Amino acid sequence: MNELAIKDLLYKLADDQLILGHRNSEWTGFGPILEEDIAFSSMAQDKIGHSLAFYTLLQELGEADPDTVAFTRNANQFHNSQLVELPNGEYDFSLIRHFLYDNAEIIRFEMLSQSSYDPIAKVATKLKGEVKYHVLHANTWIKNLGTSTEEAILRLQSSLNEAIPYALGLFEPSKYEQELIEAGVYPGEEAVKAEWLKRIVAVIEKTDLKLPSLATVEPKLGGRYGEHTEHLQPLLDEMAEVFKIDPTAEW
Amino acid sequence: MVRRFLLNLKSENIMYGGGNVFEATKFDDLQTEDPAKLAEFEARIARGEKIEPNDWMPQLYRKQLIRMIEQHAHSEIIGALPEGTWITRAPGFRRKMAQMAKVQDEVGHAQLLYSAAETLGKTREQMLTDLINGKSKYSNVFNYPAYTWADSNIISWLIDAGAIVNQMANAKGSYGPYSRALERICAEEAFHLKYGHDAVVHMATGTPKQREMIQAALNRWWPPIMTFFGPSDKMSTHTETLMRWKVKMASNDECRQQFLDMYVPKIWELGLTVPDPNLKKNMETGQWEYTEPDWDEFKRVINGDGPCNAERLAVRRTAEERGAWVRRALLNPKAKYVRPLA
Lengths: 251, 342
Fold this sequence. Notes:
The complex is a heterodimer of chains A (251) and B (342). Chain A contains ten helices and no strands. Chain A has 251 residues and is mainly alpha-helical. Chain A has one domain (3-245): Ferritin, core subunit, four-helix bundle (Ferritin, Up-down Bundle). Chain A is globular and about 55 Å long. Chain B is mainly α and 342 residues long. Chain B has one domain: Ferritin, core subunit, four-helix bundle (Ferritin). In chain B, 60% of the residues lie in helices and 2% in strands. Chain B is built from eleven helices and two strands, in the order H-H-H-H-H-H-H-H-H-E-E-H-H. Chain B has helices at 35-46, 59-84, 93-118, 124-132, 149-170, 176-204, 208-227, 237-244, 252-269, 295-305, 309-331, and strands spanning 280-282, 287-289. In chain B, helix 2 runs antiparallel to helix 3 (93-118), helix 3 packs antiparallel against helix 6 (176-204) and helix 5 packs parallel to helix 7 (208-227). The longest helix of chain B is centred in the middle third of the chain and has 29 residues, at 176-204. Chain B is globular and about 65 Å long. Residues 1-24 of chain B have low confidence and may be disordered.
């Protein structure tokens, strides 16, 4: 198996979860109701824990330790999708992002749990049970709020329209896509996307929301290759603010 | 986590420390209660029974408990803010994950406590409204800023330690829902204390820069910590009644002494200096002696003139305003309830 291809996949998985976990954690103390404050914090802890699991696999492949990898790289060395780095905005945007992201994440984990690459299969099998609850949370709230007040529906629709181009960026193929598919690591991003579309449509159909026509949407790509919005570097600077006081210190 | 309770510097109505002011309850209220019911109520408490939400209770008891639990809940949710600002900056995975979990616990405590207070007849919405409009108080220590990561560590360790001293006492109180909530809260606080202590140990035994950071944070936080339990109680018939009803379980000074007994040696053990040259234990009396905290400042800060009062309430107000549409949507009678399929 091409180790570079595996590393590329691991970085993509780990970076997405670290950055989204970080964003989710920003809701702590600010949620629209206490229960949601707590829910976003739980998901943040899971996501960051999941990223650590994948960074640990990378370390086993010879990359630097998880703290160094997470806290000292610059934005152009990150492989996360642009979707996860966007600021939280209002709760409607955070909820829509969570819905679009986690419905893709669970499919990727389901597929990876069958992977020919054993270390990833093991981790994905273990973690998909947690992501299941993230999906459950997102779908429940989208269905509840998406059928409630006109105000809520308008907000969610506007956030959905805004987030969709970035969500399509989740499925940006890696330069090793064909190799990963042929080696049976997972069926690839096109396959994830096709299944994702089915699942999100099934939820959206139960609401008063409308999925924008994907044919006319220009996907926001580049994240997987280190091209990011202006929002990622400040996030990373904040994350590393204390760590960089002395990267060799034990905190 | 944390802290709180009521205290009124202007009246004899001084309760648990942590520093909150509320208008004095008219003690005459008791005269209007049914003497037979009151006697039975007091007998139940004397036998160590818990009072439950649907049981008869004097109005004074109900009012005091609502205030106390509500202010405790507010202290949790406001207390999440100074440490919460360090979640996104916590150094390394281990600390980042622990800091998130710890602050989440505090928000969870607020949820638990608002529910306990609701059993006495005041809704969460009313309580949050009273917090935002300044009618209802929270622990005074959270009106001070957490300038650095080290400040956050000191809060996690020593403010949580103070809270445990207070809450362990209150957990033995007579009101069932509050007492049970406090037992759960104390169990979680015990982990926070370990986390805070571990973080402080790493700083205090780390690089010169880390040691300097943690000492500076201790210097900043010591005066607020010393006021955490409130000024010395004035004993009065009112206080006596609240103690008999097991609403007030220990005096402010008892709590402060217990805290000093437990934590000053631990602070010294780390080679840190407590910024009070007069702090020492008097071996004859068994009591700690210390420089009297600046109660004028305490009073000033409680009344709104602290370094962070405006900011803390502004953050809470913004969160409430930004989330209002979600609450409106949830209350919409046309909304379909979707049962999660686990």
